[in-house]
Amino acid sequence: MVKITGYETHDVRFPTSLSGDGTDAMNTDCDYSSAYVALKTDSELVGYGMTFTIGRGNEIVCDAIKLVSQRLVGKDVEELFADMGAAWNLLTADPQLRWIGPEKGVIHIATGAVDNALWDLYARSRKKPLWKLIVDMSPEEIVRSTAFRYITDAITKEEALAMLKEKQASKAEREANVRELGYPAYVTSAGWLGYTDEKVARLTKEAVQAGFNHFKMKVGADKASDLRRGKIIRSVIDDPANLPEGHKPRDPKALEGKNAGPTGAVLMIDANQVWDVPQAIEWVRDLEEIKPWFIEEPTAPDDILGHAAIRTALKPHGIGVATGEHAHNRIVFKQLLQAGAIDVVQIDSCRLAGVSEVLAVLLMAAKFGVPVCPHAGGVGLCEYVIHLSLIDYIAVSGSMERNVLEFVDHLHEHFLYPCSINKQGRYNVPDIPGEGYSIEMHAKSIAEYEFPHGSYWVGAAAQKK
Ligand SMILES: [Mg+2]
């Protein structure tokens, strides 16, 4: 019998504010950070998890992770693995900790780190990458692993089971397909607000050459600048002369309703919650010329009816609405779907409280027929989300070609099993038996960037004196 004996947390911060990486209309000086946890057992087995923050306050999340992890100490891992839905309920049901949520804010993202670490432990114990552990489960096991509380008015366990059973026979075919092709990705790192026009043009061209055909630009600080940068990006992505050698035309079905240009290139825009509802509508209408597929996070992430109003107003302009990276929990997604407020579901792998809650959102999105394009970037998020998109495609929704998974080429070198992109601009399938959820960090990176006593931060503090 293997038991969980304890945990270790690390407040790891990377000084990305120095380069302008990650700058958008709301987040102007991000130090990409990881509130990182290792769940220890009385065997060699260790489970790794983290949640992402952008700097100050990361220590508060680490403190919360300790409180949530404590709930697992002394538990038999096989008993936890046998019912991961029950394990999730255990993590979220502390009668005192619930008060500082419930299921939102610091305590919830901390729960995300811990639930992900438990899933990592499970996958490693079975010597499978996380996605493979889950797609190999029976429909009954997947439903049992899902956080189902509070969503049965949108999807019942019986409906979920029927949906999963319908996909069961063709799972092997989809797995083979995605192993061969990779999972479609899009690029955000060309369009940060902190970059010069020249840098935006150069990075966009490089992204086209690398095989990408979906691109995202940050907007919302200055309308004239948004239009100017949007036109620069469109001029690069719409020019057939920039396409890589051997480029094959995209499947028109995959581009339907995406405002694609003449080369099949798609532009998305992201405001990171900067506007009120009427301002969002007016601003995005004024950007119609650059033909965005969707506006991401136009307003407050909790404003379900506001998103619905924006979507209705922009529909005649051919522009959709996407959100989710700051949606607290599955209940917010449930309402966004019920209200017809979004065209794209953007789950976050560690703002939702881990894999069990993500499964709930994947099932609801599939039922409502809305594609899931997970949020990534930051640090560690790309490593996580490829697993979630593979689960969605192989076991849940069965569709991939209309979806795109965010990719940002930052900080992958700090992970033992970094994600990677193939020559067609698609994620490779993680395939190392012992990599679990792919989130284990190099000990050297932790030693260097742990805040405030890691070697980098000690050096930075000495320089300031
Ligand atoms: Mg975003």
Largest sheet: 8 strands, mixed
One letter per element, helices H and strands E, the order comes to EEEHHHHHHHHEHEHHEHEHEHEHHEEHH
Number of strands: 11
What is the CA-atom radius of gyration, in angstroms? Answer: 21 Å
User: Which fold name corresponds to the CATH topology of the largest domain?
Assistant: TIM Barrel
Bound molecules: magnesium ion
Report the portion of residues in β strands.
Answer: 5-15%
- The domain count comes to 2
- Helix-and-strand structural type: alpha/beta
Distance between the termini: 53 Å
Q: Which whole number gives the mean pLDDT?
A: 96
Q: Examine the secondary-structure arrangement and name the CATH architecture of the largest domain.
A: Alpha-Beta Barrel
List unreliable stretches of 5+ residues.
Answer: none
Measured as a percent range, the helix fraction is 40-55%
CATH superfamily of the largest domain: Enolase-like C-terminal domain
What is the CATH level 1 assignment of the largest domain? Alpha Beta
The number of helices is 18
Tell the overall outline: globular
Describe the structure.
The structure is a single chain. The chain has helices spanning 58-69, 77-82, 84-92, 105-125, 130-135, 139-145, 157-168, 171-181, 197-209, 223-237, 252-255, 277-285, 304-314, 330-338, 355-368, 381-396, 443-449, 455-464, and strands at residues 4-13, 33-41, 46-53, 183-191, 214-218, 266-270, 292-296, 320-323, 344-345, 405-407, 426-427. Helices cover 41% and strands 13% of the residues. The chain has two domains: 4-148 and 443-464, Enolase-like, N-terminal domain (Enolase-like, domain 1, 2-Layer Sandwich), CATH 3.30.390; 172-435, Alpha-Beta Barrel (TIM Barrel). The protein is globular, with a radius of gyration of 21 Å. The model has no long low-confidence stretch (mean pLDDT 96). The chain has 465 residues and is α/β, with parallel strands linked by helices. The chain binds magnesium ion. Magnesium ion is lined by residues 270, 272, 296-297, 325, 375. InterPro entries: Enolase-like_C_sf (IPR036849), Enolase-like_N (IPR029017), Enolase_C-like (IPR029065), L-fuconate_dehydratase (IPR034610), Mandel_Rmase/mucon_lact_enz_CS (IPR018110), Mandelate_racemase_C (IPR013342), Mandelate_racemase_N_dom (IPR013341), RHMD-like (IPR046945). GO terms for molecular function: L-fuconate dehydratase activity; magnesium ion binding. Its cofactor is Mg(2+). Residues 238-257 are annotated as: Disordered.
